UniProtKB/TrEMBL annotation:
This is DedA family protein. InterPro entries: DedA_domain (IPR051311), VTT_dom (IPR032816). Coiled coil: none annotated. The lineage of its organism: Bacteria, Bacillati, Bacillota, Bacilli, Bacillales. Keywords: Membrane, Transmembrane, Transmembrane helix.
Length: 170
């Protein structure tokens, strides 16, 4: 998809990955860095598009949590052992540490998805949410893209063949 749709694919895949679809975000960002080092993508544009895709997914998740989260948790929370008492305790914890959980939890797969919804459920102020989510997302995008850029730029794939990959996997 990246070779055919480029920046649009990056944006869409990251937005969908943050919402919760099974997209390997870290691997995707590292590959975006590699594509930038090989000249297929421009690094500043790739980072900007990655950040915008990530923030779009995070804002959509926040909106879903804000609009539908609490009623759904009250109705179906008992199925996952989330009693009203536990929900109140989680909201109390999130109101105290949630902004930092959003910022640093971004580096833990699964946690980054849940914190977006929880921010909406707990009615975190949008401005505060965007500040902390944006800081974490920007750092995450730059970090993984840079890893792919620097590591990918130092690897010579010119003599690499698909048959070599198959022999490694078998």
């Amino acid at each position: 998809m990246l070779s055919q749709y480029g920046y649009i694919a990056i944006f869409v895949l990251l937005a969908l990955g943050i919402i919760g679809l099974p997209v390997p975000d870290e691997l995707l960002m590292t590959f975006v860095g590699y594509l930038s080092s090989s000249g297929f993508l421009l690094l500043p544009i790739a980072i900007a598009v990655s950040f915008l895709g990530t923030m779009s997914g995070m804002l959509f998740s926040y909106a879903l949590g804000r609009k539908f989260g609490k009623p759904l948790l009250h109705k179906y929370g008992k199925w996952i052992k989330l009693t009203p008492k536990r929900l109140d305790k989680a909201e109390s914890w999130f109101s105290r540490y949630g902004a930092w959980a959003i910022c640093f939890g971004y580096f833990i797969p699964g946690i980054r998805h849940v914190t977006c919804y929880l921010a909406g459920v707990s009615a975190m102020r949008l401005r505060r949410y965007v500040l902390f989510a944006g800081a974490g997302a920007l750092f995450w995008c730059v970090l993984f893209t840079s890893i792919g850029y620097h590591v990918g730029g130092s690897i010579d794939f010119s003599n690499f063949h698909l048959s070599q990959l198959r022999s490694l996997l078998v």
